[in-house]
Amino acid sequence: KKDIPVANFIMHEIHCSRNIEVCRYCSELIPKSEMKSHIESEHVQVTCKCRMKIEKCLLKDHEASACPLRPAICQYCDIQLTFNKLQDHEIYCGARTERCGGCGHNIMVKDLKEHPRVCG
């Protein structure tokens, strides 16, 4: 997968075919001597804390963007909880009220950002 001068191509091709292998899982070029450890370290099935089985090499991305148990922050109170509980929490949390210092009305927390535009 690299440009090789024409004069060196045959020797390069022979060297690669003897020493390099394409991983059947990720298509990366791996030295043949390291293929077993590559598969064991990158493609072994692991279990996420959400109980989903996934290849080890995909676990970090899963934990960061797809895992229902990944950390999430409430937009209203800034507490951290798991992503799968965020929506229910924000519905409850956003419905709380706080007294507006300008007009004295009780305003739902979810409406506080917009309230100054309509506050008398």
TrEMBL record:
Domain TRAFD1/XAF1 zinc finger as annotated: residue spans: 78-120
Gene Ontology BP annotations: negative regulation of innate immune response
A GO molecular-function annotation: zinc ion binding
Residues of the signal peptide: none
UniProt keyword annotation of Cell division present: no
Keyword annotations from UniProtKB, A to Z: Acetylation, Metal-binding, Phosphoprotein, Zinc, Zinc-finger
Pfam families: TRAFD1-XIAF1_ZnF
Presence of keyword Hydrolase: no
GO cellular component: mitochondrion
Protein function: Negative feedback regulator that controls excessive innate immune responses. Regulates both Toll-like receptor 4 (TLR4) and DDX58/RIG1-like helicases (RLH) pathways. May inhibit the LTR pathway by direct interaction with TRAF6 and attenuation of NF-kappa-B activation. May negatively regulate the RLH pathway downstream from MAVS and upstream of NF-kappa-B and IRF3.
Name of the featured protein: TRAF-type zinc finger domain-containing protein 1
Organism of this sequence: Thalassarche chlororhynchos
